[in-house]
């Protein structure tokens, strides 16, 4: 989370207006907040895949899946405005919006199961409730997550989110396993390898008298460095968890809603049916709305004993935004668009990588791509410092993104779905120039 943050030590190098704003933040906001970039960006407007700063400069957004369709999408703006003019209240009154949306949402889930939905405002809340439901259903507390996972900021979810940093304590009932990285490990049968890692973690929990509750995973392993893998490779780990009495929680906050192109949900791409599915940021295109969808018998283990109420979760305005997102994904064929444009993007980036030995693996699916920065092609040694330099250079080229992975060396390219084939050349040219500049500057420093 700190990898490409603004550092107060750089304050004196900022332009006056930027310096004044950062000073005000320091005086008014808690120190746990972070700003992107050594020179923070002052954004004032967004449209589609573009953002605009206070000076009117246009940026290509390669990082923001909150506005999943695109910034200020007119269908979402209209839906929210119309519903706000009629009514906004909580879910303890009858209203058609939440029912109609849930009918539509559940139609995208595997038909062979009976599903139930609950709504919140954030992905953290969705994952928090999913963990509580899993504990209620299994009578266990043990959770397994990957070594650089991010699942939220509540007490429960931060305890399974090592991506928050070394200062974040991991709960004693949580075990972390390495992510299934074929590039770094060189292991062909990564599914069996990953399943073995999870089985070892389960055995360790059992040795400490902790019953397994769930494996929580992002099917794209986004924070672990964008590791989509071959479709279906997660089958062995699903079998291991279920043999040991645990549930599978699929965190679809980043891979869901058609982003992979191949399937509507990340779990569907791997051909398994999770017990619980969490939804977040992309669901409302910037409107705070999230959800937990679970198999009916699993949800009943919690809801038959405990009520759950979220004041703003499932309110009519949020449901209107969520419905507009689903409608637009279908009407504009955005799942197919993601598949096609994603393939074009990675091919262009591989062409750039062929010119720079410090660009290693280019991997991804749909509109989600990871690019490794390495010291050399032979050793595949991660180069986090170079990755941060490239991110800063990309910002100066008008492209906004960030890094991911346990070593902080993977460019995480995750644009709004409005990103088009017409944007590919901008991205590829910016990456080419940014890597060249970073490498040239490093050699100059070494020579001096």
UniProtKB/TrEMBL annotation:
| Transferase listed as a keyword | yes
- Molecular-function annotations in GO: pyridoxal phosphate binding; transaminase activity
Q: Which Pfam families match?
A: Aminotran_3
This protein's species is Kineosporia babensis
Q: What is this protein called?
A: Aspartate aminotransferase family protein
Keywords assigned? Aminotransferase, Pyridoxal phosphate, Transferase
Checking Gene3D superfamilies in the record gives: Aspartate Aminotransferase, domain 1, Type I PLP-dependent aspartate aminotransferase-like (Major domain)
The record's similarity note reads: Belongs to the class-III pyridoxal-phosphate-dependent aminotransferase family.
- InterPro entries this protein is in? Aminotrans_3 (IPR005814), Aminotrans_3_PPA_site (IPR049704), PyrdxlP-dep_Trfase (IPR015424), PyrdxlP-dep_Trfase_major (IPR015421), PyrdxlP-dep_Trfase_small (IPR015422)
| Superkingdom in the source lineage | Bacteria
Q: Tell me the organism's taxonomic lineage.
A: Bacteria, Bacillati, Actinomycetota, Actinomycetes, Kineosporiales
């Amino acid at each position: 989370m700190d990898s490409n943050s603004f550092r107060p030590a750089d304050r004196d190098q900022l332009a006056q207006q930027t310096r004044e704003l950062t000073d005000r933040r320091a005086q008014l906001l808690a120190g746990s907040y972070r700003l992107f970039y050594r020179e923070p960006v002052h954004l004032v407007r967004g449209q589609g895949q573009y953002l605009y700063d206070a000076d009117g400069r246009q940026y290509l957004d390669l990082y923001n899946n909150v506005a999943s369709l695109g910034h200020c999408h007119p269908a979402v703006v209209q839906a929210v405005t119309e519903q706000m003019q009629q009514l906004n209240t909580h879910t303890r009154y009858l209203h058609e919006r939440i029912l109609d949306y849930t009918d539509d949402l559940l139609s995208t889930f595997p038909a062979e199961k009976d599903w139930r939905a609950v709504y919140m405002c954030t992905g953290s809340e969705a994952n928090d409730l999913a963990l509580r439901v899993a504990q209620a259903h299994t009578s266990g507390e043990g959770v397994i997550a990957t070594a650089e996972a991010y699942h939220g900021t509540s007490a429960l979810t931060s305890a399974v989110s090592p991506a928050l940093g070394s200062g974040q304590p991991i709960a004693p009932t949580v075990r972390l396993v390495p992510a299934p990285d074929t590039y770094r490990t060189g292991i062909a049968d990564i599914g069996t390898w990953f399943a073995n890692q999870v089985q070892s973690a389960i055995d360790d929990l059992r040795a400490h008298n902790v019953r397994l509750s769930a494996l929580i995973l992002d099917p794209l392993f986004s924070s672990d460095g964008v590791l989509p893998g071959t479709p279906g490779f997660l089958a062995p780990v699903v079998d291991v968890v279920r043999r040991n009495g645990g549930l599978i929680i699929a965190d679809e906050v980043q891979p869901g809603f058609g982003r992979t192109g191949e399937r509507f949900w990340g779990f569907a791409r791997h051909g398994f049916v999770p017990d619980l599915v969490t939804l977040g940021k992309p669901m409302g295109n910037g409107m705070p709305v999230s959800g937990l969808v679970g198999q009916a018998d699993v949800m009943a283990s919690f809801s038959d004993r405990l009520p759950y109420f979220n004041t703003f979760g499932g309110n009519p305005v949020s449901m209107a935004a969520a419905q507009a997102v689903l409608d637009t994904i279908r009407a504009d064929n955005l799942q197919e668009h993601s598949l096609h444009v994603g393939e074009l993007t990675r091919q262009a980036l591989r062409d750039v990588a062929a010119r720079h030995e410090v660009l290693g693996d280019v991997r991804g699916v749909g509109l989600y791509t990871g690019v490794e920065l390495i010291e050399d092609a032979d050793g595949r040694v991660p180069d986090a410092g170079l990755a941060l330099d490239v991110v800063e250079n990309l910002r100066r080229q008008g492209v906004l993104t960030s890094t991911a992975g346990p070593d902080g060396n993977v460019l995480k390219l995750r644009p709004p779905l409005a990103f088009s084939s017409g944007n590919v050349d901008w991205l590829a040219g910016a990456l080419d120039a940014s890597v060249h500049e970073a490498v040239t500057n490093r050699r100059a420093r070494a020579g001096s």
